[in-house]
Design a protein that fits this description.
By secondary structure, the chain is an all-beta fold. It is built from no helices and 7 strands. It has one domain.
Amino acid sequence: MARISDINSVIVPAESPVFSAHTYTEIYGGTAGCTIVMNGITVQIAPSTNLTIRVRSASGGTGCYLLGENMDVYHGGEGYS
C-alpha cells in the first residue's frame, strides 16, 4: 500500500524489522543516529535525519527506526514495487 500524503503507517526499531508484515521505505535517525547495514551496504544515519529508500534487508541500526506500511495482502506481498 502506498503512503498517503507522505505519512507512514508503521514504525519499528531498526534492529528488529518485521519484513513478513511490513514494507519499509524510510529510515529515521532517531535522537542519536546509527550505523545500519541496509540492503547489504553499511550506512551511517545522522540524528533526526530521514533517508527515503526501499529497505529490503536490515541489520544493526540500534537507535534508528524503520518507517513504512503494512503488507498489502490483497496484492500478495510486498505492498507495491
